[in-house]
Write a structure and sequence with these properties.
9 helices; mainly alpha
Length: 179
């Protein structure tokens, strides 16, 4: 089908997704780059390319930051906000903790039901020294947490009350595209 209509963006995107699912990131990246060359605001192609680049493929971490910013310029998206916020922790990426917090706050406004956003915000506020805000997000997490997750959240709340650093920081990334 692609051979009959090489300009069909839908078919090209499906081919890129097929490569992505088979972990053929170079091939997926090449197709996605062609799509955004001819359709620079294609949300799906930009997001998938940013996601792949966030793993260090397809131009690497700085390319992922650029692509996530382009995604957000096209459309406000919870996973793009999370993905971009977490790029701050990648080698060579220059992003302040405050910018990361702003992105996570945007994500929370878009989808307040996603507990990983609260967890990421709690750790980011803790890292920024805003202990009351960190504590508030951990307390909100405690309300919805599974029984198995509660002890770790309670340990974090105790550590915050004692002004101690976390024993383990676990930032959770965005939902992967296409399961």
């Amino acid at each position: 089908e692609l051979a009959r209509d090489p300009n069909n963006v839908g078919i090209q995107f499906l081919l890129a997704v097929s490569h992505y699912k088979r972990e053929e990131y170079l091939e997926a990246t090449q197709i996605l780059e062609l799509i955004i060359k001819s359709h620079p605001d294609d949300f799906d192609a930009l997001f998938l390319l940013a996601h792949i680049a966030s793993w260090g493929y397809g131009g690497g971490y700085s390319r992922a930051v650029e692509l996530y910013r382009r995604v957000l310029a096209v459309r406000e998206d919870v996973n793009a906000c999370i993905g971009l916020a977490l790029m701050r922790r990648s080698p060579g990426v220059q992003m302040s903790i405050n910018e990361s917090i702003e992105l996570l706050d945007r994500a929370l406004v878009i989808d307040p039901s996603r507990s990983e956003i609260r967890q990421n915000l709690a750790y980011a506020y803790w890292e920024a020294g805003e202990l009351q805000k960190a504590q508030g997000h951990f307390q909100e997490l405690l309300k919805v947490a599974k029984k198995s997750a509660r002890p770790a959240i309670e340990r974090n709340l105790q550590a915050i009350s004692k002004h101690q650093p976390p024993e383990q920081v676990v930032y959770l990334g965005p939902a992967p595209p296409f399961g």
